[in-house]
Amino acid sequence: MSLSLLLLPLLLAIPAPPPALAQAAAANNISSFSSSDSPWGPGQDRILLSPNAVFAAGFQPLLPNASALFTFSVWYHGLSPLTVVWSANAGSPVNASASLVVTRGGQLFLNSSGVNRWGTNATAAGNSSVLSLRDDGDLVFGASWGSFRFPGDTFLPSQPMNETKLFSKNGRFSFDSASLLFNGTEAYWTAGGNNFLNLDDKGMISQENGQSILSADFGDAVPRRLTLADDGNLRLFSYSQGQWTMVWQAMPELCKIHGLCGRNSICMSDGANATYCVCPPGFRSSAPGNYECERKIPVARPQSAKFLRLDFVNFTGGLNQTNQQATNYSDCLSKCLSASSNCEGFMFNYDGTGRCVLQLGQLLYGYWSPGTDTANAMFLMVDQSETDESNFTGLTTVLETTCPINVTLPFPPDESNATTRNIVIICTLFAAELITGMAFFSAFLKKYIKYRNMAQTLGLELLPAGGPKRFTLAEIKAATKGFSDQIGRGGFGDVYKGELNDKRVVAVKCLKNVAGGDAEFWAEVTIIARMHHLNLVRLWGFCAEKGQRILVYEYVPNGSLDKFLFRSGRPAELGGETGEVADNQKPTLDWGVRYRIALGVARAIAYLHEECLEWVLHCDIKPENILLGDDFCPKISDFGLAKLRKKEDMVSMSRIRGTRGYMAPEWAKTDQITPKADVYSFGMVLLEIVSGVRNFEMQGSLLDSEDWYFPGWAFDKAFKEMKVEDILDRQIKHAYDDRVHFKLVDRMVKTAMWCLQDRPELRPSMGKVAKMLEGTVEIMEPRKPTIFYLGDD
Ligand SMILES: *[C@@H]1O[C@H](CO)[C@@H](O)[C@H](O)[C@H]1NC(C)=O
Ligand SMILES: *[C@@H]1O[C@H](CO)[C@@H](O)[C@H](O)[C@H]1NC(C)=O
Ligand SMILES: *[C@@H]1O[C@H](CO)[C@@H](O)[C@H](O)[C@H]1NC(C)=O
Ligand SMILES: *[C@@H]1O[C@H](CO)[C@@H](O)[C@H](O)[C@H]1NC(C)=O
Ligand SMILES: *[C@@H]1O[C@H](CO)[C@@H](O)[C@H](O)[C@H]1NC(C)=O
Ligand SMILES: *[C@@H]1O[C@H](CO)[C@@H](O)[C@H](O)[C@H]1NC(C)=O
Fold it and tell me: Among 281, 423, 549, 716, which is most exposed with the fewest C-beta within 10 angstroms?
């Protein structure tokens, strides 16, 4: 005891005082460093401050707590925890006896036993050889050398990003302002052709072509940094309330980063911020450090090959990956067996695109992601004698909770008549059934009939394969018989029903008030058309002629959700697609269907938010924009259209966009609108799905009372009074069976409450919402939603 007390002062004295202490000693702050101040060693309590005192430079221990090794670094001054943003010698730290000198020849020399450890050549002529730190954090020496030109793993606000590269500390990942790369070559994320230019302190990343990315907290001038971490993810952080918070990231799903796991290995995520690698069945670890796997039993191809199905597994690397179109599963399988080079397996997608990806030569960059748009499975080739079974399962359950059509969409053969097409379709459906393990013969017979009818009604035979088609105005006029059959009047324009030459039935939307020229419109439409999800209305084509802006969508037969939910008899006052069937003839949606609608919508929004390059905000989620297809498969309409008007008001995104009652509280403030605004609107819709009433109506009368807030009322009923029955839709209340439906309804109500939190940051992300509804994550007890603000437009 007494001994350690004695030692304590000694320990503090060697070898160098912690920099925090050094910062306190203002006397040792310098504003420039030149040959007359040389040498400068780690032992000196000296830091170089920028004039605004936001940044500091000097020696820092390599490890946060006392270390024998040092780097000469730049950090945010006075922020805790210490945040180093640049180092001169990150890869080759020096010991306590090293020193920084400005030589007589005008060179910056980090002298470690005579060797210069300063990472780049920094020389300056004559009397300008002075090292100083600018207000933006650029450490400059002389007229031409500046640390901004040699970034490490971090970009600071105002630092130019093009023509330089970021490297993660471990050197495995880099960012060249256009894409994120593993090992210098393997791109796993791109900025979509719009290279990053710079970041500002308000949180906007400017890109080429006038594009930009806004952080979740856009607007406040706070310390920020864009950092490429050792896990390969590029993240934007901002500093407030004593900590760094992530406000944007390139890769929401870490496992999609290349190189986290080695050959044949599969990356898995724990759902938080950690990943790990596992070997697929039939494989064992071969190089534990590199997370590589090898086959346990070599396959004698093709005679003794069999395939194991790995649900939700995608291998994205391998130089010889080939994308093919297959009519069905067996077609894809035989392509793999007959491939000229070694086929290790193949991926097949049940979403109807017929996508068949052969894995030739090697299996690389595999990941498991039970994501939001997944009808995808990997079929891994193993030897007949292999006894391992696949433990990557779950696809069957997903297919059961999604719309049935997704299992069954076939790819149309090029040239064939309707009969052979039907046969192909039916065989595909059967094959799909077989491998999803749901098939036996009698069931098949029943489904045969069902699928045949379904294929006919949906016109599946005629699904197009490519991008959006450009229609002429004449074609559109012919298809809609001169815009004669109006079926809706939405916020974006009028909608007409039509039929194309190839007999496809379409909904034609004539847009109003679209900003920008033809090229811009085309670019946006192409992006919208690229968004494929079972629960998004499919965009088939467009027309931009004579000032007209027309979108051609698949026709969704059952009309919009509001027609089924609300039957007040009073016409809805909100704009939406008008259905054709009279309200009282519409069937009542049962609990199972309501749940499936909620889940489908959640998955589609999550897809928009998380899978697309930029966050695509819908901004107008309401029952009118949820269309119901065959079998009441929900399909969101009007997504991506907010972008067409983006230019007018990118930052403030005018209030007119949303619809009263569904708009998140932050719309009423000037806060930047984030994906969490959609989460709020979804929460409101979810509550309406459960209750069958409009959130601003109660018992047929419009309640305009200041105190009335539907979510708060529903919360009290469900969680305080414990009378969840009171909020259930009266039309099907009688069908509510506590034992059967409690879990389902409880999940929907709890999820809705989380979505409806007034503070955006308390709401879960849409991906999480989908998982909460699925029941794959635990839902904590929600807090009561309150309003502090409501828009009054
Ligand atoms: C570097 O340090 C060594 C002693 O360790 C000294 O001899 C040498 O002159 C120094 N070089 C410079 C450029 O200061
Ligand atoms: C630095 O050198 C330039 C010319 O090379 C001269 O004009 C200037 O006066 C010098 N400044 C000082 C402070 O010596
Ligand atoms: C990185 O690339 C080099 C060739 O450019 C290659 O030899 C090496 O195997 C690659 N490393 C990994 C982990 O893929
Ligand atoms: C598999 O990953 C690749 C590359 O990220 C992606 O393009 C493809 O869509 C993925 N396939 C599926 C079915 O998710
Ligand atoms: C990929 O294909 C090229 C030529 O098609 C071939 O030279 C190469 O060996 C193949 N690589 C692997 C890993 O199969
Ligand atoms: C499958 O089994 C392997 C080996 O036991 C394990 O490491 C892996 O996590 C399992 N995968 C899943 C999806 O559970």
Answer: 423
Task: Tell me if 359 sits within 8 A of 345, measured CB to CB.
Answer: yes
Pocket test for ligand 1, best of 110, 111, 123 (most atoms within 8 A of CB): 111
Listing DSSP states for 268-326 in one string gives: EE-SSS-EEEEPPTTEEEEEGGGTEEEESS---TTTTEEEEEEETEEE---TT-EEEE-
- Report CA Rg, the chain: 30
Any atom of ligand 2 within 6 Å of the Cβ of 127: yes
pLDDT of 1 higher than 70: no
Asked if 154 and 226 touch (Cβ cutoff 8 Å), the reply is yes
* Beta strands 469-470 and 539-545, pairing class: parallel
For 695-711, the pLDDT digits (tens) are 877 644 445 555 678 88
Q: Which residue has the higher pLDDT, 594 or 353?
A: 594
Provide mean pLDDT across the span 402-425. 38
Judgement on whether residues 371 and 479 belong to the same structural domain of the protein: no
Answer yes or no: is the C-beta of 104 below 6 A from any ligand 1 atom.
no
Q: How far apart are CA 464 and CA 468, in angstroms?
A: 9
Which range, of 24-33, 58-67, 139-148, averages the lowest pLDDT?
24-33
Distance from Cα 127 to the centre of ligand 2, integer Å: 6
Which residue range forms the structural domain that includes residue 556? 469-774
pTM of the model: 0.58
* Closest atom of ligand 4 to CA, residue 371: 14
CA-closest residue to ligand 6 atom 10: 391
Task: Based on the fold, state whether residues 680 and 713 are members of the same structural domain.
Answer: yes
Structure confidence at residue 523 as a pLDDT band (50, 70, 90) = low
Three-state SS string across 759-787, please?
Answer: CHHHCCCHHHHHHHHHCCCCCCCCCCCCC
- Token pair 């690397």 is at which residue? 317
Containing 335, the helix (H) or strand (E) segment is helix 329-337
Whether 462 is covered by a domain: the verdict is no
Q: What is the pLDDT of residue 281?
A: 94
- Average pLDDT for residues 290-305, to the nearest whole number? 86
Band the pLDDT of 653: cuts 50, 70, 90: very low
pLDDT reported for residue 396: 62
CA of 363 relative to ligand 5 center, distance in Å: 13
278 lines ligand 6 (CB under 6 A): yes
Q: Is 400 part of a structural domain of the chain?
A: no
Most confident of 78-92, 404-418, 505-519: 78-92
Are 138 and 157 within 8 A, CB to CB? no
Whether residue 417 is contained in a domain is answered as no
Q: Are residues 596 and 720 in the same domain?
A: yes
Query: In terms of domains, do 506 and 625 share one?
Result: yes
Asked whether residue 485 falls in the same domain as residue 586, the answer is yes
Q: Which of 9-23, 225-239, 295-309 has the lowest average pLDDT? A: 9-23
Q: Say what the pLDDT of residue 671 is.
A: 62
The protein residue whose alpha carbon is closest to atom 7 in ligand 4 is 316
pLDDT at 446 over 90: no
| Protein residue with its CA nearest to atom 4 in ligand 5 | 320
* Domain limit, last residue, from 105, 130, 149: 149
343 and 200, same structural domain?
no
| Atom nearest to 38 CA in ligand 1 | 14
Residues 551 and 539: beta-carbon distance below 8 Å: yes
Q: How far apart are CA 248 and CA 225, in angstroms?
A: 11
| Assigned token pair, 510 | 């004539």
Which of 113-127, 141-155, 530-544 tops mean pLDDT?
141-155
Q: Are 373 and 283 members of one domain?
A: yes
Active site residues: 620
Q: How many domains does the chain have?
A: 4
Helix segments in 121-204, DSSP class H: none
For ligand 2, atom 7, the nearest C-alpha belongs to: 127
Q: Which ligand is nearest to the CA of 268?
A: 6
Percentage with pLDDT > 90 across the chain: 34
282 and 185 together in one domain: no
